[in-house]
Amino acid sequence: MLKLNQVSAQYNILTGYVKAVDKVDFEVRKNEIFGIAGESGCGKSTLLKVMYDLINYPLEIASGSVEVHATDRKGLPVIYRNGEIHKSWWKDISYVPQGAMHVMNPVTRVRNQFFDTISKFHGVKNKKTLEHEITEYLRELELPPDVLKAYPHQLSGGMRQRVLIALATFLHPSIVLADEPTTALDVVVQRGILTMLSQVQKKLKNSMVIVSHDMGVHYQITNRMGIMYAGQMIEVGPTDRIFNEPQHPYTKMLINALPRIGDNSQKEGIPGTPPSLKNPPAGCRFAARCPHATELCRLVEPDRVNVGEGHYASCHLLN
Ligand code: SF4
C-alpha cells in the first residue's frame, strides 16, 4: 500500500542541513496498523510528513522515493509517487496531524470544516446529501451529530481528536497516517481514541501508520512497528517480536525501561543524548550510548540484518 525506498529528507536551514530522515526503507501492508516509535526529535513526525508528501520549505527530500499504491476511478491500479501524492489526499491517503486544537479553524463550525475539506479535494456535492452522509458516519463512529454545530473551542481535546479522525476517514482512504494521536490526552480519553482508531481500521480494512513516542500505544494497537533513532529506522518487525525479542541494543534498552505490572525493580533511562542531526557521526549513530560499541561501530554504518520473519535490525552484533 505504501512503500518507502531509501528516503532521505532534510531541513534546509541557513547554516546547513538538518538530516532528519536518513535512508529509510520499509513498507506498510494492506489491512495493518504500523507503528513508528522513537524519542522526541528522532525524525518520526518528519517521516510522516514525507509519507504524506507534505513537503514545505525548509523541508526537502534529498533522495529516495515514496509510493502510494491505490486504484483509480475505474478500479485500475495506480501508483502515486512523492510530488504527486497530493492528488490522492483524503481519498487514498489521509493525515491526522498532531495537536487537534491548532489544526482546526477556530472560527469555523465543524460542519463547515467537513464541507470545505471534502469540497476542496473532491468537488462540491449537494450540501444536504453531504450533511446526511457526514451525520451517518459520525453516528457509526459513536460521535453525537451535534458536534457539527460546534466551534472547535467548544469541544474537549478528546472530542476534537475524534472529529479529526472522522474527517480524515470520511472518504474511506486506504491509508491513514496519524501523528501522536493520543498526546496531551488523559489515560481514559487515550484509550477511547485508540479504540476508535482500531475500530475504524477494522471497518475500512485499510492501512494505518501511527507515530507515537509512547510504547504503550504501540503495544495496544499496532500489528508491526519500526523503531527510529537519529533519523534512521534501526529495527522493524511484528509488534509482539519487538516487545518480546528486540534485537537492536537501543530497542532492548527502550523495552527494558518500560514499567511492568509486578516488577518493582528500579527502571533506568538510556544514558546520554542522541547525536546532532546537523552533523551526524560516521558509523552507527547509537555508538556513543551503546554499551556494546566497538571501533567498527564508530567507523562503519551497520547494514540491515534479517533476524526473523519480517523482522530486521541494523547492528554489527547481529552479523
Ligand atoms: Fe551498538 Fe555497535 Fe550495534 Fe551500534 S552497531 S547498536 S554501537 S553494537
Automatic annotation (TrEMBL):
GO molecular function, one term: ATP binding
Short name of one Pfam family: ABC_tran
The entry's keywords: ATP-binding, Nucleotide-binding, Transport
tRNA processing among keywords: no
Residues in ABC transporter domain copies: 2-255
GO terms for biological process, alphabetical: peptide transport
Family: Belongs to the ABC transporter superfamily.
Protein name: ABC transporter ATP-binding protein
Organism: Paenibacillus montanisoli
